[in-house]
What does this fold into?
Amino acid sequence: MNSLPKNNLYIKISLMLLFMVQAMSTFAQNKEKVPWQRINEQPDTWYGSEAAIRIAENMLLHQKDIGGWYKNIDMSVQLSEEEKSQLKKDKSSNMGATLDNDAGFIQVAFLSKAYRETKDPRFSQAVLKALDYMMDAQYENGGWPQYYPIRKGYYEHITFNDGAMIQVMKLLRIVADGKKPYDFVNADRKRRAQKAIEKGLEIILRTQIKVDGTLTAWCAQYDKDDLSPAKARAYELPSISGSESVGIVRYLMTIENPDPKVVKAIESAIAWFEAVKLEGIKLVQIDDETLPRGYDRVVVEDKDAGPLWARFYEIGTNRPMFVGRDSIVRYSLEEIEHERRVGYSYLGPYAAGLLESDYPDWKHRQ
It folds into this structure.
């Protein structure tokens, strides 16, 4: 009977053990990996873990000297020494620091949780610096731009689009109230945060669009000087927003003991949402391999479909607007180019939850 030489057998066993160690290491790394979109949804104790501290330190590297961050960056990825060195060099470059697309809000929440578990002062100082950045960015009239320092163009508009301004106000309210995980914030910043949200509320009430003497809802962005509804990108024209207005109303509903102006703003917006809802239609996706993305979006009749709202409504007529990159207003989705039909949200059940549950719950509390 043939047998392997002892030295070959030892080599085989060693290789098997090495493979097992590598496999276990890879498994542990994968198990440790938390998707960027869920890093603020972990158990409290996780924020003191080695994995969380590494992410927190990445956030410190990405934070600009002014206190803000760039957007659309996954800061949970492993950084090379070269990348870390470059981030340190770029800290003084504030171009692009923004409140858009959750930039800053994810980091502030994460770093506050990491500080709570580790008591590392670097994390709390980064949060305070970020809060100062957000409060410094506020205009004297109470609004917030999309970018700060101010970036010329539509970026300097007072921006409700994608929830930018409302996210700031929600965060600062938690800070002003001294609630966890921001209970380490000092009294001066709490007072400043309170003043900021009071000014923000004033601009919300001032910018609610009135048509023929009746309050409706809000545009996605406003001119910072004359407070008129403003254009952003080519396909985002002055209009009444069936999407961004939902977040504004929900914010107003969280105000305790609202004064009559706030109540009127809410009631008026709800009445507008009821008046402009689109019934008997639904938005469907149709596979089509001849198209660049392999599918199209079309509106079809369906008497059983739930209500939809347009992203943009024409001021004065309440007609749903569909605008492509040519900035021409059209009144049906099929009339704009395919790239925009499938690359942007023009119709959706935006206000469904607001009307079905949020508003009735708010009325019950009054």
